[in-house]
User: Fold this.
Amino acid sequence: MFVELNKQQVRELYILRESLEGTAAGLAAMHASEAEIELMHELLKESGAIKGNPTKMAQTNRSFHRAIHDAAHNRYVTQAINQLYDSMALLPGTTFEFPGRSVTAHKEHLAILKAIKARDSEGAEHHARLHIQAAAQIRMKMMFAVD
Assistant:
């Protein structure tokens, strides 16, 4: 069975993702252990080495976000994000196929991690929200040729 989401459904998914990912990053800034922060750092180092491979970038991206979710130490946020990701799996391809996205996403991830390391909850949430907003804009361009 093939399901195709319309523009409004994709917008709604990304609005929810922005909220949940922002919340998770803010909580991670408050609750992440040093080991969890180190894992995020290692994942970003790994992603820096594979910028030309969209599939591997998408996998490392998921691992980085999962590390943030885990570091939030809130089972209900994690549960909501996992349910959202089930719906996001309906989206075709990856935004890392878009020219230049791997470079900009890496910079966005670095800003999120910097705020988490600094225990700056508001900054982490802000940067995570900006990151998801950028991904949403690219997704809309890829799927619907929308600016």
Observations:
- The helical segments are 7-31, 34-49, 54-72, 75-88, 101-117, 121-144.
- The mean pLDDT is 93.
- The chain has one domain: 7-144.
